[in-house]
Amino acid sequence: MTAPAIGFDADDTLWHNENIFAHVHTRYTALLARYHDAATVERTLFATEMRNLDLYGYGVKSFTLSAIETAIELSGGQIGAAEIQHLIGLGREMLAHPVELLDGAADVLADLAAAGTHRLLLITKGDLRDQQAKLARSGLASHFKAVEVVAEKDEAAYAAILRRHGIAPERFLMVGNSLKSDILPVLALGGSGVHIPYRLLWAHERVAEIPQAPGRFFELKTLRDLPEVLRAWPAASRPAAGA
Q1: pTM attached to this predicted model
Q2: 134 shares a domain with 71
Q3: Residues 152, 217: one domain?
Q4: Is residue 4 within 8 Å of residue 171, measured between CB atoms?
């Protein structure tokens, strides 16, 4: 029987990420304070990010380009070269920021990899180079059988990943902090999901829908509780298709 598979989100599931963005947002609104209030800056920046999402995708580089565009717009073109250089510097700082693992990430992944009872995959979206660099700095790369960096995390993306790795949806469990990106698409395909909320969540990832999937949807406070879920996960004892 082929082992069931677990997919792990990266940002804000295995390591801190949104807190870095939140810190930069504070510095960004301070930089533009002489042009507009913080609420206007944040609202306009978010609108710019959403408008550019199909072109730039996710990640620090996309954020930096949208931040510069927003600064030019809100300043009426008066933003100076030094200020734009400062924004580029903020982006560089974010890309070089140390990877800070969330509690339990190193221990849980090491134990699961050593046990060999589940295939472990990293499934994340964003800039390929940035995500690969963070994974390398995290010290977690050796635990994963495969790494997938995708442009979007929707049903089509997950279906393609499962086909590529020969994983039946009913034998797949996705672990992540975003209901929108990590849980709902997988549940829709017939898989299972473990939601571990992070204290901060980007507005684009917020959804009002609460999953209704008894036996396939679990919500935890910490990654350290994942092994208990795995022991009770019905799909883990299901025979693979054709077995």
Answers
A1: 0.91
A2: no
A3: yes
A4: yes
List the domain range (segments joined by +) for residue 153.
Answer: 5-15+100-237
User: Of 34-38, 160-164, 200-204, 209-213, which gets the smallest average pLDDT?
Assistant: 209-213
205-210, Cβ contacts within 8 angstroms, sequence gap of 24 or more: 205/178, 205/179, 205/180, 205/181, 206/180, 207/179, 207/180, 209/179, 209/184, 210/179
Mean pLDDT of 156-162: 97
Whether the per-residue pLDDT at 239 is higher than 70: the answer is no
Gap between the Cα atoms of 90 and 126, Å rounded: 18
Which domain CATH number covers 131?
A: 3.40.50.1000
Cα–Cα dist 119/234, whole Å? 16
Of residues 174, 221, 183, 220, the one with CA closest to residue 205: 183
- Of 36, 67, 96, the residue at which a domain comes to its end is 96
